[in-house]
Amino acid sequence: MQVKIATWNVNSLKVRLPQVLDWLAANAPDVLCLQETKLTDDNFPAADIEAVGYRVVFAGEKTYNGVAVIARHPLADIVTDPPGLDDGQRRVLAVTSGHLRILNLYVVNGQEVGSDKYAWKLEWLSRISRYIKSQLKEHDHLVVLGDFNIAPDDRDVHDPEAWHERILCSTPERQALGALLDLGLVDTFRLFEQEEKSFSWWDYRAAAFRRNLGLRIDLILASRSLAAGCTSCRIDKKPRRLERPSDHAPVIAEFAV
DNA sequence: ATGGTGGCGCGGCCA
Description:
5 helices; DNA-binding; alpha+beta; six-stranded mixed β-sheet; 14 strands
């Protein structure tokens, strides 16, 4: 059986709901994980999503952060506050859907290398890695996906010199991501031949999208046994071309399970 | 070094 799973930082689900509904209809994923919904749970548009044949779980807060998982099939074993994370924010949503354990993440941005938020990002990554390690022990078929706010290497950066040791690209951030991969995860995007300068995020400023000045920071990581059955991973730039787009594009992977 | 844009929410923070 083929499973299609996607991740998309929507930068406000209130604004992007019509685009999300259109995207679901056009792409028919089994699972779509969202980040930066920026909605409290009482304002979440669950009925609109259920009306198009999906189920949804969500963990939100006012103004910032917020994650959701939209899926064809029932969602079980929902975790929003992994043991030891204790971040007081809504950045994590773990669910089980069919054969897959899914961990949807909105990783701390970090603002600037050396800042307090940067130190917190590294601490947050260290904490979530403990949860991922325990999830890998429990689940053969684990997907860890979302907005990692880290470009894994220089291929994922439009101008590696300009971004050298800057936020989203610094060595400690990349090492933290590397430590996650070393637990037994694979960056599925790199299992396949990809166009050079493939990115998933472009700053709203300076016409960055038109000039393809982007980074690849939205990732779909899979446990090794699941990655062995990965048949594709690609970035869908179409929604980034729409009026009033998110600054991120969706990433989609397919797995034989 | 700064500013460029967008979302939230109505001033400033965050990305």
